[in-house]
Amino acid sequence: MSETDPRRWKALIFIALAQLMVVLDATIVNIALPSAQQDLGISDGNRQWVITAYALAFGGLLLFGGRIADLWGRKRTFVTGLIGFAAASALGGAATGEAMMLGARALQGVFGALLAPAALSLLAVMFTDAKERAKAFGIYGAIAGGGGAVGLILGGFLTEYLNWRWTFFVNIPFAVVAALGAYFVIREPAGGRNRSPLDIPGVVLSTLGLVALVYGFTRAESAGWSDSLTVGMFVGSAVLLAAFVLTEAKVKSPLLPLRVLTERNRGGVYLSLGLAIIAMFGLFLFLTYYLQIVQGFSPVKTGFAFLPMIVGMIVGSTQIGARLMTRVAPRLLMGPGFVLAAVGMLLLTQLEVGSSYAGLIMPAQLMLGLGMGTAFMPAMSLATHGVEARDSGVASAMVNTSQQVGGAIGTALLNTIAASATTAYVASHAAGATTPAAQKLMQAEAMVEGYTSAIWWAVGILVAAAAIAFALINTGAQGGSPAASGDTDGAENSKDEVRIPVVAH
């Protein structure tokens, strides 16, 4: 085993700071979007592209970014990603029109796809002791998991008290501090690079396949599931990704070695976490709309209303998951964690127009945060179960990719369910709403009916995630040797074994 890096805890600060910036960006722009749209004259039809341009570039290029980190060196890829992300953010903040804004968002996605896998794999190869790794991933997971809600608070402050442009400019100091810190503090362990030639057909097929998949779900939300282009995107994505799998099985140096996907425990982690992200993304969206539109919260107040979820996630990650993951089998943390989150989600199916925040929303969020934090921690350790250090970048990218696709599915699927339920409610209650006040109340009730219908689906999805974790994940506690923990790759690989965390993005 390589000697422990004495500066690893300092390095964790800069790695976590960089990931916080990427996670913040996922929600901070949502809050600024209405103001930016008005200033730049972006049409309602094109408004979604401010979010979609980033998601397509980020989701489509993650596997490529992970392979570049393995090939080029994680530290170099990490610093390059940070500098590029800062430059793209400056361009977004200075945007004078629609084209400049969309270009900046796509560039942010490109550099984010370099940055995220490099950050995760750096963390994994620097922390080799099981207990230290649990602690580091606990801190990292809590920061990354809570980052989305922090983005809502920060986005609300910047948009209300300064200007929407600061939601972009705020990335620059984050990126500069993280890049300088990484350059001077991080020392990448030797011998972890994969210098095999780049699998160009794999890069092209995976990028096009993932872009088509993410765009298909994004388009389904606005144009409907039966729209010809939506269906065409799904069919095209299936063909491209099937061709990608066939290519990876045959080429000498694949972009994504299929053994990364086919090991039972890794498969269980990818599936269960992907499902959990679908449920969580939908919830963030509906709760934001509910608090702002139905309850009339300001953007800043909405951000603070998410604090119980952050607290729950931090406690679940650092005090439950990180403390128990070296002693308890992962499925005994992941399964109950997802069940607890499902119970929190079940509470939210009781939402009404005048629901109490303290009586209903706050305890539901605490349960969700606690459950997710507890489940994410062992998953972070298990996500690259037995993967060698030279494949750690691409394995980390695979986890991020499942999250990006999960996020796109969650937003599109649950939004569609909510919209259908709202429309049905309006159709059946419109005749009874004869005064302006009654019509306004009926509209609010219709919205809440839509949200609760979708949240019921999210409950079912979390229960499915728990069932998959219980059924597929069969390895032991992660504190011992690979052989002791049920690692089928054998003890001879223990020096190369790395654990890569997953981030709630």
From TrEMBL:
Location of region: Disordered: 481-505
Keywords: Antibiotic resistance, Cell membrane, Membrane, Transmembrane, Transmembrane helix, Transport
Residue ranges crossing the lipid bilayer per the database entry: 12-33, 48-65, 77-95, 107-127, 139-158, 164-186, 198-217, 229-247, 268-291, 303-320, 332-351, 357-376, 454-473
Topology term for the membrane: Multi-pass membrane protein
Residues in Major facilitator superfamily (MFS) profile domain copies: 11-478
Main localization, broad class: membrane
One Pfam match: MFS_1
Location(s), subcellular: Cell membrane
Entries under SUPFAM superfamilies matching the protein: MFS general substrate transporter
UniProt-listed PANTHER family: BLR6921 PROTEIN (PTHR42718:SF46), MAJOR FACILITATOR SUPERFAMILY MULTIDRUG TRANSPORTER MFSC (PTHR42718)
Protein name: MFS transporter
